Amino acid sequence: MMLNYQKLISQFGPERIKLDEPMSLHSTMKIGGPADVYLEVFNKEELVSAVNLCRQENYPYFILGLGSNILVSDDGFRGVVIRNRTSKIKIAGIKGQINATQKSIKNVLVEAESGVLLNQLVRFTLDEGLAGLEYFLGLPGTVGGAVWNNAHNERQKKYFGEYILQAEILTSGGEVKTVDQKYFQFGYDTSKIQKSGDILLAVALSLLPGNKEQLWQAATTELIYRQQNHGGGNSFGCTFKNISQADALRLATPNHTQSTGYLIDSLGLKGTKIGGAQISAKHANFILNLGDAKACDVVQLIRLCKEKVKSKYGVDLKEEIGNLGEFEK
Predict the structure, then answer these.
(1) Is 137 strand, coil or helix?
(2) How far is 222 from 153, CA to CA, in rounded Å?
């Protein structure tokens, strides 16, 4: 290791710290070399403590959720990977009226910590008969990742950020504070915290009461659609952001679809393999690890897609995934 991580080891104990931990064990793509230090935190206080210590000691650090939407370098990461395992979900409040003779609920506030699996949160709200998140069943990742990327269901035009009332964050200056939904400046696959250095700790979501059976039916329909139409296997999920509406209109795509998968598919790239990585034969916006893929294989497939789409359509594809570690330019 290049750095001395003794203060981190002393604070959390040697039994909590894993050195040279393969990141292939902690990503949905199953790719990645070792991180210098791997630490799992289980509550907001530990998360804040770990991040603030890394900042004070100038340790490079990365907050990891489920490990989707991330490509880790074959050389790993020279720093601290903090795996966020915070897990609390609760109903925090009800707006409306409930008494012996009347039940009139306008909306329900649900609080979830940032390490909660998104599917776990969705299932919790469905079981409580709360509408809003049903279209997100089957999406990988955590609540923190869903806020970071403003997770979306493109088919239903639903975005996770629209349900947030407020959130608790750790600012880049080390302050824990509560912010409202507007703070995040949500857009397509974007939020303010991608650049601000803020760390999400928890969110409060405003949801509406609904029919539990109908909500589960809608959610199951979305889950089946994803299973039948998305890439499957060890992947990030979608590799690239969808194209703009202006590009879709300019190119006269079928029904003006903004699907990047459509463009890649139209170039005959489905099923293309480099090393142990493959563009999915089911959905061209998914790249799969066939079992022994390296990050460099994935990078080459990404470059191939970008070059071909740029040459044919004049569109610059933008990755939906992030990189961790050092990659060749």
Answers:
(1) coil
(2) 9
Asked if residue 38 lies in contact with residue 20, where contact means CB atoms within 8 angstroms, the answer is no
Phi, psi dihedral angles at 102 (to 5 degrees): -145, 140
Q: Which domain holds residue 168?
A: 89-220
For residue 50, what is the enclosing H or E element?
A: helix 44-56
What are the Cα distances from residue 211, in Å, to 128, 145, 204? 10, 28, 21
Do 122 and 149 lie in one domain? The reply is: yes
Q: Are 274 and 297 in contact (CB under 8 A)?
A: yes
Q: How many CB atoms lie within 10 A of CB 172?
A: 12
The answer to whether position 226 is within a domain reads no
Please write the tens of the pLDDT for every residue from 147-189: 999 999 988 999 999 999 999 999 999 999 999 999 999 999 9
Q: Is residue 159 part of a domain?
A: yes
The total domain count for the chain is 3
Q: How much is the pLDDT for 97?
A: 53
Q: Are 115 and 45 in contact (CB under 8 A)?
A: no
DSSP β-ladder status, 234-238 and 286-289: antiparallel
**Coil, helix or strand at residue 18:** strand
Beta bridge partners of 274: 277
Shared domain for 135 and 208, answered yes or no, is yes
Tokens of 111: 């609080």
The strand pairing partners of 322, in sequence order, are 70
| CATH number of the domain residue 133 falls in | 3.30.465.10
Sole residue written with tokens 């089911």 = 282
Beta-sheet strand order (sheet of 234-238): 234-238, 286-289, 277-279, 273-274
What is the largest distance, in Å, between two alpha-carbon atoms of the chain?
A: 68
| Co-location of 193 and 128 in the same domain | yes
